[in-house]
Design brief:
By secondary structure, this protein is of the alpha/beta class. The chain has helices spanning 3-8, 14-25, 50-69, 96-100, 120-134, 144-149, 154-162, 164-172, 177-180, 234-245, 260-269, 301-307, 310-318, 332-345, 351-356, 358-362, 376-386, 391-401, 411-428, 439-454, 461-474, 480-492, 500-507, 509-520, and strands spanning 36-42, 74-80, 140-143, 186-188, 201-205, 210-214, 220-224, 230-232, 249-253, 276-280, 283-284, 325-326. The protein has 24 helices and twelve strands.
Length: 525
């Protein structure tokens, strides 16, 4: 084993912990199919949301960790359940009335309300693939419509007919009494209306591979379970898909966790080994509600990328996947700054620490250098104080603070400056609330302005921070946090802020004096 593999076998980062669990699955003999199969599932009933991205990203991190500790080849399948009937019209898409006419039809049979693709399902699949491709994921895309209609699922569907009573027994134990009376694992697709039917089976003929049922008008039909004429209910479909593909690993949200014994039981009833699982906690919006692709709450992929880098989003997704996290716009600055903190730490760490560092997993071991000589949170304060509406305004301050930095040599900083201007305009400026200083605060700020005017020494962060600190002590602030909070509230219109010495160094001594004067004169609000 190489040094890297040795270290990875004891690394505490969760992708390596999961990878070792999957490797243990094949400690006696390698998989007969010749590879380990990772899968992520997607229900294209609405536009793809950021949680879907997180699922693929986290699965990819585990896959790459597995490839460090094992020579067994791997595959990743992104499976879209696009044969599912459209049960409700998503609230965030156009042509609501038109869509309502196609309720209960498979998503790939519903017209595209955007008018760009063959169907609504095809449109949402394209959206999914577009943002997965944007992030460079290596995956194979599977459509349930193609999977059912092409015959790839036929063997398992015939086995489901053969094991119908066994699979039904697993499902019925999980259902309420009234639901049991009408439940079947098979959902026929009506030959005339094209709708997915939720009806009782009158007969399941395992020998012929056929089902017989009455439609909603009482007419009797007999259909083969193969060839896309019938689909499985979503819980049986989960387990049957694992059996058909030989899935070794799938992660899903906590809302699926109670179904795990059902999925596993159905997979085993159909003659296959159940995969390893990883259950992650759900993402919440600003109100603490679960984000949903149909309601469109939370943040979309495109919205995050309007205000921050792709890597910052990956960093957010890496952290504590088993802890529920608010996924809203206010988490973006922290994610940006912490990502770059980890980048700066990485070269100084030993191999063990590097393997536990999120940036190792974000970049699959090929970790770049951070050129962010100004933190993102500081750029936000600079944009706010300077009234910047473009990143070139910020560069006027950055070049004075860091003369060697240019947009070409510091591409990450240049991009961050653009993000900061947009974020500041949309989220910082509208929430600013300035206040007037009290007598003690006014005296201290006048003193600070006077000392800054007279200062002709070094203007680095530490020198200026020491000056601010000394002024606060001299004016009797028992808790210096109150002094800094006053500076933030009077001069920046917010209760929290940057290390003020660093802000002065970046914004400029003369500019800060002018800012203090405007704040004391009540001109900032």
């Amino acid at each position: 084993m190489s040094e890297l593999r040795d270290a990875a076998m004891s690394a505490k980062a969760w992708p390596f912990e999961e990878a070792r669990r999957i490797l243990k699955r094949y400690e006696k003999k390698p998989p007969e199919k010749g590879y380990v199969l990772f899968e992520t599932g997607y229900g294209p009933s609405g536009l793809p949301h950021i949680g879907t991205f997180g699922e693929v990203l986290r699965t990819t991190m585990i896959r790459r960790a597995f490839e460090v500790i094992s020579d067994i080849p791997t595959r990743l399948i992104c499976f879209s359940d696009d044969l599912d009937g459209m049960r409700k019209v998503p609230g965030n898409v156009p042509q609501q009335d038109m869509l309502r006419e196609h309720l209960q039809k498979p998503l790939t049979s519903v017209p595209d309300p955007f008018g760009t693709h063959e169907s609504f399902g095809h449109h949402n699949n394209a959206m999914l693939r577009r943002f997965l491709d944007t992030f460079g994921f290596e995956y194979e895309f599977y459509s349930a419509t193609e999977f059912y209609k092409s015959g790839q699922f036929d063997e398992i569907l015939l086995r489901a007919a053969e094991k119908y009573d066994d699979v039904m027994a697993i499902m019925l134990k999980s259902l309420r009494e009234e639901r049991r009376q009408t439940y079947s694992i098979f959902l026929p697709i009506h030959p005339e209306t094209g709708r997915v039917l939720y009806v009782l089976m009158k007969n399941v003929d395992a020998a012929k591979g056929e089902i017989t049922f009455d439609d909603e008008d009482g007419r009797e039909w007999t259909l083969p379970v193969t060839g896309g004429n019938v689909k499985l209910q979503w819980k049986p479909d989960f387990g049957a898909r694992w059996a058909a593909l030989g899935v070794d690993f799938e992660m899903y949200g906590k809302d699926h966790s109670t179904n795990t014994p059902i999925y596993d039981g159905i997979c085993r009833a159909l003659g296959a080994r159940a995969p390893e699982h990883f259950t992650y906690e759900l993402f919440l919006d600003d109100q603490g509600q679960k984000i949903s692709k149909s309601s469109g709450n939370g943040i979309s992929i495109d919205e995050w990328l309007t205000y921050a880098s792709t890597e910052s989003l990956s960093y957010f997704m890496f952290g504590k996947p088993k802890t529920a996290k608010r996924l809203y716009f206010d988490v973006i600055p922290k994610a940006m700054d912490e990502y770059h903190q980890q980048l700066r730490a990485y070269p100084k760490q030993d191999l063990t620490a590097q393997l536990n560092n999120p940036v190792y997993h974000i970049h699959n071991g090929d970790v770049p250098e951070s050129r962010m000589v100004v933190p993102f949170s500081m750029l936000l304060n600079l944009a706010s104080a300077a009234g910047a509406h473009d990143k070139e305004t910020l560069w006027g301050f950055i070049r004075r603070y860091a003369p060697d930095a240019t947009a070409e040599t510091h591409a990450d900083l240049d991009a961050a400056a653009g993000y900061a201007v947009k974020y500041c305009e949309d989220f910082v400026l509208p929430t600013k609330t300035f206040r007037a200083p009290d007598a003690q605060e006014r005296a201290a700020m006048e003193d600070l302005a006077e000392q800054l005017r007279a200062h002709d020494g070094a203007t680095d962060d530490e020198t200026l921070q020491s000056m601010v600190f000394a002024v606060g002590k001299a004016h009797g602030f028992e808790n210096l946090r109150d002094w800094f909070k006053a500076l933030y509230e009077v001069l920046l219109g917010q209760s929290q802020g940057p290390r003020f010495g660093g802000f002065i160094a970046l914004y400029g001594v003369a500019e800060t004096v002018a800012l203090i004067e405007r704040g004391l004169n009540g001109e900032l609000g």
